[in-house]
Inverse folding.
């Protein structure tokens, strides 16, 4: 019975992880300085790994990328929860017969490729003097606050642009599991809360929100994982040094002569960090399941 | 120079002694990776006979040109062979050859031509190394070519099939990185200057040329949020070196202090203007108005009219300047054609090289790609003014106007005399550049 699961685990997790470790702790092709994986763990060389750990400890590039990535993702997830929760709540509670239609409309833009959607935003935000994007046209023509188009990809605005790009790119994947969790909440529990004198607000805070916690966690995990690996959103939306995140650095290292082991080492460290977050999620799910059985 | 496996020089093995000496000194067994690396270095055993069966990565410099090695187990094809039936497989950057020219070749030889693309050279080499997919013609840079030769992934050329090599500037028929063009022929040539739009940065070329150091334009006039450099360590850092040291700068330096200073200059610039660091900065972002001032390969700048939303209104404001012409130093680089050892169609591949070196075909390709072949017959001013017979209206500077403001972006053979050439560096020294660039790219300040 467990064979498919074990095969899945080996093919899609253990083998790739082992290959990354073999590159991280391996050597370099003597001619091209590309990665030369070392498959025997007894022969692993930890020089590149130590370099990256040293950067993390001493405030080098790895630490800078890590801190920036965490900040961006924390803000992007917070915005996703703030925006996504009311949307999921509205559809599950008030969608009625239109639920399916609303969900379909919500995810319709996401039938397009991620790349195309980001490129569309680049055009919408364009500050080209000849052909400004729609957003800049509206800001300049319809508001009294802007005399000229804003360069959304530069300066401090670039941070906001990249974060909003991350939110836009991943928010449906937050809303869908949250919607499912909200939709599963037994209405009789809400009715009971109201019968016991709870106001709509206290019913939400004391019943709905706790019961949807697993949906929030699931949605958060689902959008956080790809955000940690994202590198094209900052590249497309800004392209500036100050908006690069850890995925950009891994991409750069892997494509730089002689740096692949450092790129793989950074990947391993990132995986370790994400595993800690996943562990928290699994413990939380397990605890919730135990409480539900009581 | 035509080289053939039957040439007596082919059987000499002088460099093997060098190699043995190096290997014994380091106490390693033969052949080993360490020995190959020990033989690496600018100039390497420059000027040697270039034969022998122990591979060495030889980086030439203009002062120490190199003959790339020939190997008994990697001979050039014989002369007067019939071309294969194809399909000929080209392996190149995306959009770096006009498919119409490929179709022309296919039509002339009655074969199919496939165009496979790579994202970067590391990826390309990795795929070639696996041998799982075979390509016929590859487009390496001059620092990758010696490695392809040492790894026996490229095959020597038989010049009997490539008479059109004589169409190329004489200096590039016998280049420092591959004396005798044993393994490569030039594809395109370009210098690294900068481009800007006068509607966003109101400076004329004369004003820039009159600056005490034109490279200062980035530090003194770069508009905030609209200034860009290439996402290429050597190019970006070299520009900062020219800014700091003027024409005395050495873009091949391995002096850590100079590389560190260049990195700091880039960081300072980044802090002031918020640099865009990308590859499409010149040919896409300048014409789209997203950038006002950008480091620019000359070929990128020549392509800009194609990318402008309204060329008739905008392309007249595009400018390009390469400071080396006025004595401020600058870099020229060229890309190459090579035929891979695993090619299934080596004769056809030789014919392809010859076809692409034909003046008309090379100009036709230039008209679409924006990057020019170093043709002796190409007179920039004449071509910009009058076009090329049979290609009227093909060029970007003829697109919805006449953009002779782009003339400075056409490279001439005189430019080679005032330019510095990048050359390959051994890994440890290249790492000085890549580490410095990585720190700059972290955006820390």
């Amino acid at each position: 019975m467990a064979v498919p699961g074990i095969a899945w685990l080996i093919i899609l997790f253990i083998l790739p992880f082992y290959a990354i470790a073999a590159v991280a702790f391996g050597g370099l092709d003597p001619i091209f300085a590309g990665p030369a994986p070392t498959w025997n763990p007894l022969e692993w060389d930890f020089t590149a790994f130590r370099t990256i750990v040293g950067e993390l400890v001493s405030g080098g590039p790895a630490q800078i990328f890590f801190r920036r990535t965490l900040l961006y993702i924390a803000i992007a997830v917070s915005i996703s929860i703030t925006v996504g929760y009311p949307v999921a709540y509205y559809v599950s509670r008030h969608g009625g017969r239109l639920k399916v239609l609303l969900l379909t409309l919500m995810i319709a833009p996401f039938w397009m490729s991620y790349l195309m959607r980001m490129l569309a935003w680049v055009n919408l935000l364009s500050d080209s003097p000849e052909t400004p994007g729609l957003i800049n046209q509206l800001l300049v023509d319809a508001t009294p606050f802007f005399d000229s188009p804003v360069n959304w990809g530069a300066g401090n605005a670039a941070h906001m642009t990249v974060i909003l790009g991350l939110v836009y790119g991943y928010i449906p994947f937050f809303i869908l599991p949250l919607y499912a969790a909200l939709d599963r909440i037994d209405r009789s529990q809400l009715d009971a809360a109201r019968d016991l004198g709870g106001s709509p607000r206290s019913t939400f805070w004391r019943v709905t929100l706790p019961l949807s916690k697993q949906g929030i966690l699931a949605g958060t995990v689902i959008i956080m994982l790809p955000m940690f690996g994202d590198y094209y959103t900052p590249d497309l939306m800004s392209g500036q040094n100050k908006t690069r995140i850890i995925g950009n650095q891994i991409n750069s290292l892997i494509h730089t002569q002689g740096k692949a082991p450092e790129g793989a080492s950074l990947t391993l460290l990132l995986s370790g960090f994400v595993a800690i977050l996943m562990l928290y999620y699994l413990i939380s799910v397990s605890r919730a399941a135990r409480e539900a059985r009581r | 120079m035509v080289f053939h496996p039957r040439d007596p020089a082919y059987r000499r093995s002088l460099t093997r002694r060098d190699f043995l000496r190096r290997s014994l000194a380091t106490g390693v067994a033969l052949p080993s990776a360490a020995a190959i690396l020990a033989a690496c270095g600018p100039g390497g055993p420059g000027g040697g006979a270039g034969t022998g069966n122990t591979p060495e990565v030889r980086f030439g410099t203009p002062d120490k040109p190199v003959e790339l090695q020939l190997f008994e187990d990697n001979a050039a094809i014989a002369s007067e062979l019939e071309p294969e039936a194809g399909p000929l497989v080209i392996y190149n950057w995306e959009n770096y050859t006009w498919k119409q020219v490929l179709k022309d070749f296919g039509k002339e030889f009655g074969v199919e031509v496939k165009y496979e693309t790579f994202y970067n050279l590391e990826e390309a080499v990795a795929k070639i190394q696996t041998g799982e997919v075979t390509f016929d013609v590859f487009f390496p840079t001059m620092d990758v070519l010696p490695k392809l030769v040492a790894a026996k992934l490229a095959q020597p050329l038989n010049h009997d099939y490539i008479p059109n090599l004589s169409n190329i500037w004489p200096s590039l028929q016998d280049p420092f990185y591959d004396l005798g063009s044993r393994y490569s022929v030039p594809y395109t040539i370009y210098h690294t200057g900068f481009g800007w739009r006068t509607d966003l940065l109101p400076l004329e070329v004369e004003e820039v040329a009159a600056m005490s150091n034109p490279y200062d334009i980035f530090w003194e006039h770069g508009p905030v949020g609209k200034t860009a450099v290439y996402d290429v360590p050597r190019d970006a850092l070299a520009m900062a070196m020219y800014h700091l040291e003027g024409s005395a700068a050495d873009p091949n330096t391995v002096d850590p202090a100079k590389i560190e200073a260049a990195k700091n200059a880039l960081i300072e610039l980044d802090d002031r203007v918020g640099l865009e660091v990308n590859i499409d900065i010149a040919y896409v972002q300048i014409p789209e108005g997203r950038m006002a001032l950008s480091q620019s390969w000359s070929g990128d700048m020549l392509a800009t009219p194609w990318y402008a939303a309204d060329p008739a209104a905008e392309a007249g404001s595009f400018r390009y300047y390469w400071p080396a012409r006025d004595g401020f130093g600058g870099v020229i680089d060229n890309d190459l054609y090579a035929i891979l050892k695993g090619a299934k169609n080596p004769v056809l591949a030789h014919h392809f090289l010859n076809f692409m070196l034909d003046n008309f075909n090379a100009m036709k390709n230039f008209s679409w790609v924006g990057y020019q072949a170093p043709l002796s017959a190409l007179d920039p001013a004449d071509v910009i003014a009058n076009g090329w017979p049979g290609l009227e209206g093909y060029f970007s500077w003829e697109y919805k106007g006449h953009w002779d403001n782009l003339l400075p972006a056409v490279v001439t053979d005189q430019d080679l005399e005032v330019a510095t050439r990048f050359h390959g560096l051994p890994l440890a020294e290249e790492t000085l550049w890549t580490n410095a660039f990585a720190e700059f790219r972290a955006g820390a300040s």
